[in-house]
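pls read this stuff:
=====
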Amino acid sequence: MINRDIMQSFSDKYQLTTRQREVLLQVIENEHMGSAEIAAKLGCSLATVNVHLSNVFSKIGCRSKAETIRMVMAFAAAYQQQTPVSMKSIIILSADDDPNLLQSIAQRAEEQFKGKITFIPCSNGQEAMMYLSRARQNDPDFPRPHIILLDLQMPAMDGYETLRRIKSDAALKEIPVIVFSGTIGAENTKELYALGANSIVLKPSNPETMARVLQAILQYWGL
């Protein structure tokens, strides 16, 4: 099965753009789908699809759709075998300058999900971006997060700038970013969604609510 993590890892390895990855995914899902059908499905021109396909073939060193599919399938099989079970848990990166909140999230995640959550605390946006820069290079010591919880008011780099950088990076933009802040007004909400925030959640006021919020976030994002 070609899941999101496998596809992202393959794309990172061969430096595929987001659009190239989308075209490749269509090819994998239906080898016999023509370029015109892919163009209609993705809402772009036939010429654009052909250019993306040509670039994909060039980057990964294949000459046909069938050869490309075999290569992706072999990559997926190797990925599944080499990824330790412990690394298959849900990885949550939380950027917040409140150490008490970070500790509370980590504690609740451990209690509620019994080892199924790997929690990565970052004290500000700059620290989060340093982690993500290593993750995008497939550094095994910096596993790619499945979800990012992002506070807004932080030193060194605030949540707005962190969000802008994540969503402007082709290798990171598809990671769901949930803005996790104490106070958010209507204008803030508009700006955050314009920057690419996937969801906005008010910080819980007590541990019990924290547990419910974590459960809701994971259920909503299908994790």
Observations:
- The longest strand covers residues 90-95.
- The longest helix spans residues 65-82.
- The CA atoms of residues 90 and 223 lie 7 Å apart.
- The chain is about 55% helix and 10% strand.
